[in-house]
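Appendix B, Record 12. Input sequence as logged:
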Amino acid sequence: MLADLHARLGRRWLQRVRPWKARRAFQRLIANPDQTEHVFVVIRSLSGRSFERLLRRVRRDPMGARVLRERRDLIPVLSNRDYLLGLPEESLGHCYGRFTLAEQISAEGLAAASQVIEQDVEGMRGLSDPEALAFGARLRDMHDLWHVVTGYSRDVLGELALLAFTYEQTRNPGIGYIVRNVEKRMRRGGNTEIGDFLREASQRGREAAFLPAADWEALLERPLEEVRRELRVGAPPLYTQRRTPAGEAAAAAAGA
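Logged structural output:
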């Protein structure tokens, strides 16, 4: 099955890297950190063969292989707030439901932003393998679950730390590009503690279980602290959140 992976995914899609496209998107992201769609452009423009390698690793994992065979879709369960909030308060699913309410976000919104970008990134149409397409969507949709499990919020520091964690899990060069360059800018801005914060996030990502292959549907119903122990992500960090003005306004509106 893996022997013809290049043919089914398309070598051009796997190998082509678009650094200038990534740089322009990164500049737009810096100008407006709340425009999440630019993150997708950077990641997709610099991914190279990293997705192929990640998919291969998921296929070697027993649970990951099962999830791929079943072509599971996280959107229906993650968008069902009645189900999520009906779970026990200590469960991952209930905590995720409260998180999306507090942050005024949804799994559908993240998917919509990604799909708009896919239409703009040259070469995405070369991806035709059904399992690969299903896994790409699943990897995107589990992002906010990782926020809840790791304890990093959606403020600027939390998003950056989660990207550092995610890089260690996926080894995607686009994610590494964002982390390195934002860290440099923050250091120049006087935030000298950012390096330690991100090193801790990277270490957590290296020591954690392989989250891309996890059975998230089953984990939603289990106590969050139990899930954290099983996935070896460690205790949520204590840090002072830093939000953009738009992020502060959204948080205030959600709490009103």
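The chain has one domain: 7-242.
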